[in-house]
Amino acid sequence: MRAAGSHERSGAPVPGRPNDHAARGTARAAASCLLAVACLVLALALGACAADPFRTPETAAWRSPVELEDTPFFPQEKYQCGPAALATVLASSGVDVRPEVLTPRVYVPERGGSLQPEMLAASRDFGRLPYVIEPNLPSLLAEVAAGRPVLVLQNLGVRFAPAWHYAVVVGFSPETGEIVLRSGTQRRRVTDAGVFLRTWRRSDNWGVVLLAPGELPAVPDRRRFLGAAAAAESASHLPLAEAAYRAALERWPDSALAALGLGNVAYARHDLASAERWYRHALVLEPGDVIVLNNLASVLVERQRCDEAAALVARAATLVQPDSPLAATVADTRREVAACRP
Amino acid sequence: MRHSRSVRSLAVVMMAHLVALGLAPSAHAAVVGTEAAIVSHERTERIERINSVLARDEVRRQLERLGVNPADASARVAALSDAELLALEERMQELPAGAGALEVLGILLLVLLVLELVGVTDVFKAI
Fold it and tell me: Which CATH number goes with the domain that contains A195?
């Protein structure tokens, strides 16, 4: 087994050793015994030697090393790997902000760290769309190769003694089987890919890239991208949401959800004419969609087009599942329609 | 009224990066937001209508209890999408808090050292 582990360019303290001979001898004996037992347990736990992560069919295409050397570095303060890592990916996407500015937005004192949903929310506040990449190595490599560092959550410990840590992947080397990260107080933390994957797997391979408005990720997954746009819409970041939905519609012209999103953004801006136009577009793509029918009916009521609204909501009512919460919304829309006066 | 079982399932669904129902309350019209549409289309779980105003208030209070100052807590909950809000509401105590610090009892240190040497963990810098 090759000696796995991480090393860094600058020096770091090594755990101290006992001073006197006898103690050293005993400690060494105890350590070897423990090591033997641990190795046995681990051999059973780990199973057969893991294949080289860079030699799988999905990653074999990556042959050359990549390193985003210009990625800024913010050494973390005590428990502030969240702010430091987030500042790193924001800065590399063109948003200059220091970790101290991010701390009040993501750090949770009693938990001693930062939570994933808040990391996502904070990115949007700086005009970037957080996209959670597909949870696998090829997607991670694709983003880095496309010039985007990836914010990752690792558990550097084990399940019963976790050491959750945010870091930023800035490079990889297929030949030496290594991943390069901005991590903690290390500008370049070079980690064996197998070790990295083990630490990453424990967070279910959570990785995030920040996209400029209208930008698509290296491997655009329709559902994920629309989810990211919808989150922006839900958090009232309308320009970000709109740019994302437009990009989605261009990439996937048959996406009723993208058209619905544009309608919802227009509605949120009280632009009823555009909302109506987009909902109609969505309806052409998905004529039987209850939500589109509902939303279009709703807007038409506000525009005093009562008859057409009535027809649409009636259709929605026949299509909606009775036990779905949409049924309640459709019922509300029906009431609005009933009160509609042209 | 929320049923905790289905809301918990919903939180699990969201932690798998799907989005949850968050019907945006609107004074003017019953318009369904796109996050809600995504969940509805997927029909993955029995979903419940949540009152996002109440949920936001609850998460804000949770953050304050965990040491976030009130002004920051308000701003932070306002920044969350409905799906993120629900994820936090259910799991604020359990979600991993990325810290970069080792949370371990002293007696486990030697075991961890061994695990580090064989590459299971990656905590220490110079090994």
Answer: 3.90.70.10
Distances (CA, A) of B92 to A339, B19, B61, B64, B101: 43, 17, 11, 12, 19
Q: Does B84 touch chain A (CB under 8 A)?
A: yes
Summary mean pLDDT of chain B: 67
Residue B84: what pLDDT? 93
Specify the residue for token string 């797997």: A201
Q: Higher confidence at residue B125 or residue A218? A: A218
Mention every residue, 6+ apart, whose C-beta is less than 8 A from residue A184: A75, A76, A81, A84, A165, A167, B100, B125
DSSP states along B62-121: HHHHTT--HHHHHHHHHHS-HHHHHHHHHHTTTS--B-SS----GGGHHHHHHHHHTTS-
pLDDT bin (cut points 50, 70, 90) of residue A98 is very high
| Residue A78 counted as domain residue | yes
What is the pLDDT averaged over residues A146-154?
Answer: 97
The ranges assigned to domains in chain B are 4-95, 100-127
Chain A positions in Cβ-Cβ contact with residue B116 (cut-off 8 Å): 5
A127 touches chain B (CB under 8 A): no
Asked if A231 lies within 8 A of B115 by C-beta distance, the reply is no
* B103 contacts on A by Cβ (under 8 Å): 112, 157, 161-163
Question: Does the pLDDT at position B12 exceed 70?
Answer: no
**The pLDDT of residue B3 is above 80:** no
Interfacial B residues in 27-56 facing A (CB < 8 Å): 28-38, 40-41, 46-49
Hey, are the CB atoms on B34 and A11 less than 8 Å from each other? no
Query: What total of structural domains would you count in chain A?
Result: 2
Which range marks the domain in which residue A145 is found? Answer: 66-211
Model pTM greater than 0.80? no
CATH of residue A296:
1.25.40.10
User: How high is the mean pLDDT of chain A?
Assistant: 88
Q: Does A252 fall in a domain?
A: yes
Please, which residues have CB within 8 angstroms of residue A246's CB and are 6 or more apart in sequence? A214, A258, A262
Phi, psi (deg, nearest 5) at residue A151: -75, 125
Of A211, A245, A273, the residue that ends a domain is A211
Q: What is the ipTM of this complex?
A: 0.79
How far apart are the CA of B1 and the nearest CA of chain A, in angstroms?
12
